[in-house]
Amino acid sequence: MNPAEWLARTAALHPEAPALMRGTDLLADYAGFARRAAALGAGLAARGIGPGARVAVFMTNRPEYLLALYGAWYAGAAVVPINAKLHVREAEWIIANAGAQAVLVSDDVGAELHPDVPLRLSVDGAGFAELLTHDPLPGPVPMTGDALAWLFYTSGTTGRPKGVRITAANITAAVLSYLADVDAVHPADAAFYAAPMSHGAGLYNFMHVIRAARHVIPPSGGFEPDEILDLAPRLENLHFFAAPTMVRRLVAAARARGGTGEGIRTIVYGGGPMYLADITEAVEVMGPRFVQIYGQGESPMTITVLPRDLVADRTHPDWRARLASVGRAFSALEVRIAGADGRSLPPGEVGEILVRGPTVMPGYWQDPAATAETLRDGWLRTGDMGAMDEQGFVTLHDRSKDVIISGGTNIYPREVEEALLLHPAVAEVSVVGRRHPDWGEEVVAFVVPEPGHDPDPASLDAHCRDRIARFKRPKHYRFLAELPKNNYGKVLKTDLRRLLEEDA
């Protein structure tokens, strides 16, 4: 089913319910939200964009983001959400790879896109406004369950992003899984978009549309703890997604103010490791407001869940172990731990986490080799290592991929390494993550200079700024005569991490 059907149904039943807000200012009720989305869909359709087309969305958080999503779905197209933190060159690569027929942008990130980008329409300009002048479509263009609805690009260890194909049926399963296992949603609630709408926060719009709840964009457009704590009591019943680093900052701000997060009903956290001491403190300061999820782009926001009652429980003899876990499988999914041969391991043994169910992607965009490697016998191989106890609680032990998670955002070392290797003074480089008290991890680059060269961190930093997003840049450079390697020439990143530990 087309996700825009949910908006159309809610607008018909609750036309005057408040829908789009910036802070405490109401911008549109559900009737206005649906009418504008249907007009945008008509404008896209008039330009030949319909079923099978891809519409890229390259924006910072703003109310127009939801209009862009639902406008594309009204026309029957798929959306390609692009992280607003990416470098413009990275965004252009995604747009080209997806074969996007239109790109809806905000000027603060998309103004420098190449002129050859197809049908670039800025929400800050006349082009987007002109789309909204069209007579609204009478209803969303029908979609089958296997129709592409959300093409999400997640970087891989190969250094190039992969497009994760999320179907209309995948989205439906994820929404129902949220309502069954994560949290209820009521008309008086408000989805608060402090995290990027191109990622999980954006996917959490659906259940709030279904329940005619409010959608609130903070005036800052991002995550500002004091802003959230100021707005929450005025808005009431806030729901939002937050990475563990965001939770830590919010808890620290609440403690400093002597508050408990009044007005916040639910904080869903995930996207990186939440340390036991941090979530214990969070519950002590703010109470039972927290739910943990573990998921991937390939099974969006749905693999395991630790509901609020278990996050807050301090009576069970195993509460610490449970709180250190990522919970149990979502009701609609199967999760198991497998050895190298693919066979299930007994409770307590560490292996790769595998998942099967209706939220799992059908494959990567135009990448059959990667699809075959990741999807085997119907199971998604997550690349994450973990163990499952007798009661089904899964604990992450390590990542088989060397992804660095900084501020809840994945940074893949290969991308950074490839950028640095283009510098004429760099002979070899290896990138690893180092623990950071605020961001979870930060990027560290070990560099072997070319003979006769003496690169300085400032020049390497400037080089990276021209090629990759700012948040991916190394925060520290360490220069070595050679990188530690095994007999096969593979760099031993464990040795590099050990050097960082010794430095600390």
Structural class: alpha/beta
Q: What is the number of E strands? A: 26
Strand percent estimate: 25-35%
CATH class of the domain at 404-503: Alpha Beta
Overall residue-averaged pLDDT value: 93
CATH topology of the domain at 404-503: GMP Synthetase, Chain A, domain 3
CA-atom Rg in angstroms: 23 Å
In the predicted model, the low-confidence regions spanning at least 5 consecutive residues are: none
Summary keywords:
globular; 26 strands; 18 helices; five-stranded antiparallel β-sheet; alpha/beta; nine-stranded mixed β-sheet; 504 residues
Description:
The protein is of the alpha/beta class. The protein has a domain at 404-503: ANL, C-terminal domain (GMP Synthetase, Chain A, domain 3, 2-Layer Sandwich). Strand 20 (379-388) and strand 21 (394-399) form a beta hairpin. The longest helix is centred in the first third of the chain and has 17 residues, at 30-46.
Short recap of the structure:
Helix content is 33%, strand content 27%. With 504 residues, the chain is an alpha/beta fold.
